[in-house]
């Protein structure tokens, strides 16, 4: 009987190290960042059995791949639109100056978006100038406003932006805002989301 338990023990040890070796190979061939791979290997070897289960539960989550696939699906309508831009009246590459042509080439090569005529650009070098210009554009909007921010902290000119958006929504403008949940945490804890949604503004809280 004692010999049976001894054999069972050796079989258990063999299966354990076989499992460790298999998971180790899995970690190595995943080709993650070196620091991440080393951290998982330390957990697997230092914490018996528990480290393996922890990796199987959390280490195999491939959110990056899922996000890439989702972004690819979302980009398809825009890609079709970009391809049609070359046929619109605003696409007049023969009228570009020698300074504008390299910028157009850069945009087309990197983004696939050609430069279009009929636009004006202004350099804004301070937050106050940027927000004041943004508020003016909101007041001038007639049909739709779509905005995206990583960080929105309530207070100062940001409150004036929120007020301008509420006024725009009340006069019939379709207002939609996308905010990062972590970067705009203080905003979501303030009274502004409730006021803005009550005015008809669609606010989406994006999670990572």
UniProtKB/TrEMBL annotation:
Which species is listed as the source? Answer: Photobacterium aphoticum
- SUPFAM superfamilies xref list: Phospholipase D/nuclease
- Keywords assigned by UniProt, alphabetized: Cell membrane, Membrane, Transmembrane, Transmembrane helix
Q: What is this protein called?
A: Cardiolipin synthetase
Cite the InterPro entries for this sequence. Answer: CLS_N, PLD-like_dom
The GO terms this record gives for MF are: cardiolipin synthase activity
Q: Which domain of life is it from?
A: Bacteria
Q: Where are the transmembrane segments?
A: 7-29, 35-58
Which positions carry the signal peptide feature in this UniProt record? none
Q: Where is the Cardiolipin synthase N-terminal domain?
A: 23-59
Membrane topology is: Multi-pass membrane protein
